[in-house]
Amino acid sequence: MNTKNYFHYIIFLSCAALCFLLACVERIDISTEDSPPRLVIYGYITTDTAQHAIRITRSTGYFVTTPPEGISHADVSISCDDGVFELEESPEEPGLYLTSPDVYGISGKTYTIHASVDFNGDGKTEEYEAASYLPFPATLDSAAITPSPIMDKFLQVLIWGNLPEESNGYFSFHLFRNGITLNDSLRNFFVERDEYIVTKKLVALPIFQLNTERDKYKFSSGDTITVQVESITSEYATFMENAQQELRGPVPLFGGPPANVETNIHCLSSDSKVEISGFFTAYSKHKTAMIYE
Fold first, then answer.
1. Integer Cα distance of 281 and 7 in angstroms
2. Which of 68, 62, 128, 74 has its CA nearest to residue 272?
3. Among candidate residues 43, 59, 204, 193, the one with its CA nearest the CA of residue 128
4. Regarding beta strands 276-291 and 39-46, do their DSSP bridges make them parallel or antiparallel, or are they unpaired?
5. Structural domains present in the chain
6. Among 176, 206, 174, 203, CA closest to 190
7. Which residue, among 160, 184, 159, 186, has the nearest Cα to 174 in the 3D structure?
8. Could you report the per-residue pLDDT of 40-73, keeping only the tens digit for each?
9. For the segment 145-174, what is each residue's pLDDT rounded down to a tens digit?
10. Is pLDDT at 36 greater than 90 in this prediction?
11. Is the predicted pLDDT of residue 247 greater than 80, yes or no?
């Protein structure tokens, strides 16, 4: 093929491709109207002696940038076979319900949240419940921070400890620097399954890879670094992983459409038309701390 014919051939292919693309163009109108608001109930009880919280809010539209509206005047309690913990609404934050400061959960027990909520503001309350087993804790003996053997400019966090004999199979981890959580966002929530751990012993198990080019991972000598492990239920692990998937978007890009993450909150009224989101869970905690040098 001579040069003249070659350029004619290229021009022909370009025109053909352009015609093909133009033929595929179709105008699509996407509705951005907000769906009806949903009742959102989220909270937990742990083995910490602390003021535990349940948050009850009304969902907002996708493009709304203000925080969700808290729903006041609900009756909220957490119960198990040992008794009932009544929660009081925070005077500073509508929709935030708190236990007394001396409340704690006990491993091996099942806890149930009960909430009476007037979601529609019509003066009629509806009853909502959810239950969660509180798993036995993993224990941490020590932790260490060393250079990562697989990535430059990264540190790795290693832990030593033991898994419980009555393992529920799922564990999450949080890292603190001088009491401030470094991975408190949904995107950075990390779950480990004990099926990947051969024995009940945790020996130099790497749980975090930290990019030292990020300011929050530029530790200074004398910093107190704390590692916390939470023993969580499989249901809560699935809830958090599904929420992460919706946050990150579908993979591949043109995968399935977004969907509401499944909740364990249910309404006791079979004829209720209120849509529900959120989750109630119970989990155990254990910590170990070190001084960074």
1. 67
2. 128
3. 43
4. parallel
5. 39-135+261-282 (2.60.40), 139-233 (2.60.40)
6. 174
7. 184
8. 999 999 999 999 999 999 998 777 888 889 999 9
9. 999 998 999 999 999 999 988 877 899 999
10. no
11. no
> In 10 A of CB 50, how many CB atoms?
16
What DSSP assignment string belongs to the chain?
--HHHHHHHHHHHHHHHHHHHHHT----PPP-PPPPP-EEEEEEEESS-B--EEEEEE---TT--SPPEEPPS-EEEEEETTEEEEEEE-SSSTTEEE--TTB---TT-EEEEEEEE-SSSSS--EEEEEEEE-PPPPEEEEEEEEE-SSSTTEEEEEEEEE--TT--SEEEEEEEETTEES--SGGG--EEEGGG-SSSEEEEEEEEEEETTSGGG---TT-EEEEEEEEE-HHHHHHHHHHHHHHH--SSTT-PPP-PPP-S-EES-TT----EEEEEEEEEEEEEEEE--
d(CA 281, CA 63): 29
Contact status, residue 64 vs residue 85, Cβ threshold 8 Å: no
Residue 38 has what pLDDT?
92
Q: What percent of the chain has pLDDT over 90?
A: 63
Tokens found for residue 44: 């937990």
Place of tokens 């890879």: 209
More confident residue, 271 or 86: 86
Q: Taking residues 259-263, report their average pLDDT.
A: 81
- At 196, is the pLDDT very low, low, confident or very high (cuts 50, 70, 90)? low
Looking at residue 17, its pLDDT comes to: 56
